[in-house]
Amino acid sequence: YIKNNMANKAIDLFNEIQNPNDEVIIILLFNACAQLGTNEALSLIKKVSSQIPISFHSNYHLSTSLLDALIQCGDCSNAEIFFSKMKKSVIGYGNLMNGFLKANNPVKVLSLFDQMKINGIEPDLIIYFYIIKALSQIGDYSLAQLIVEKIPNCFLVNDRVQNALIDMWGKTGCVDRAKEIFEKILEPNQTEYGSMINSYGLNGMGIQAVELYRQMSSEFRNESNYVCILNACSHSGLVDQARSIFSNIQIKTEKIYTTMIDCLSRASIFEEAQKLIDEFERDHSPVLPMYSQYY
To answer: Do 79 and 107 lie in a common domain?
Structure first.
């Protein structure tokens, strides 16, 4: 059931077991709850974890499964408390960092990184990836520079890390550093193009964003990258370029319409923005974000 994304069926089956006291069964339950990530699943996690024998907590796999379930259900506070009692591992730290990133709490991520160093646990690729993502959320150039310069070079050549760095330098206002990394990539992928376009857009460099968009292979033009380039045009007042790009998009999603409406509204072209809203609503129900951009 869990392998086929049928977590509710797995939980129903668990509830049929009288006095479940098998460690493997408990691990599977926590995995099912993690897959759901709901408040109901969190309540079940807390109920079962409070009833299992204390000896079960010495099972590394069970403890890791419980930690992950708490995180996936959004309860990072209790996850952190539970983690403090666990045997420390790089996987545990990574799971908790990821949870705090999802909760938009990057300061906690950096705090966990400091704890790792104190506990003598060597960070791996995933840890550095999460650290860069946290620095991206914080947006402090000096702090980013201080930490990134200590990351071993062997990790800096990884695709995911390079993309995260492009995004981070863009969000800390250092487009030159982002561009430097991007230009060293022999064959940038879809995500890397999007991150670099977004970096230009965030820093008011719409013309450079459009130039890069024109260089990008048409096969890389997806919803995310369309939104990035339209946002870049919006923040730089490049309405004509945005119109041209928008008109050539074959499949226009809600996000794409909303971003184009934002572009027109920022330029006080409200009549045209209203026409786009009307065009969208001929085949779709009204959506609030579209109107919030308009008004």
So the answer is: no
CB 147 within 8 A of CB 161: no
Residue 10: both structure tokens together: 């797995």
Domain, as residue range, for 8: 1-87
Residues 52 and 95 in one domain: no
Among 230, 295, 294, CA closest to 256: 230
What's the distance, CA 226 to chain centroid? Answer: 18
Q: Is residue 47 part of a domain?
A: yes
User: What whole-number distance in Å separates Cα of residue 192 and Cα of residue 270?
Assistant: 33
Place of tokens 């409200």: 270
Q: Which residue, 141, 170, 185, sits at the end of a domain?
A: 185
DSSP classification of residue 18: S
Structural domain total, the chain: 2
Give the pLDDT confidence of 79-89 residue by residue, as tens digits: 999 999 888 88
Which CATH number is 144's domain given?
1.25.40
Residue corresponding to tokens 């050539």: 248
pTM, full prediction: 0.85
pLDDT value, residue 76 = 93
User: pLDDT (tens digit, 9 = 90+) per residue, 141-184?
Assistant: 999 999 999 999 999 999 999 999 999 999 999 999 999 999 99
All residues at 6 or more sequence positions from 168 whose CB lies less than 8 Å from its CB, including other chains: 132, 133, 135, 136, 144, 148, 178
* Cα gap 11→16, rounded to integer Å: 9
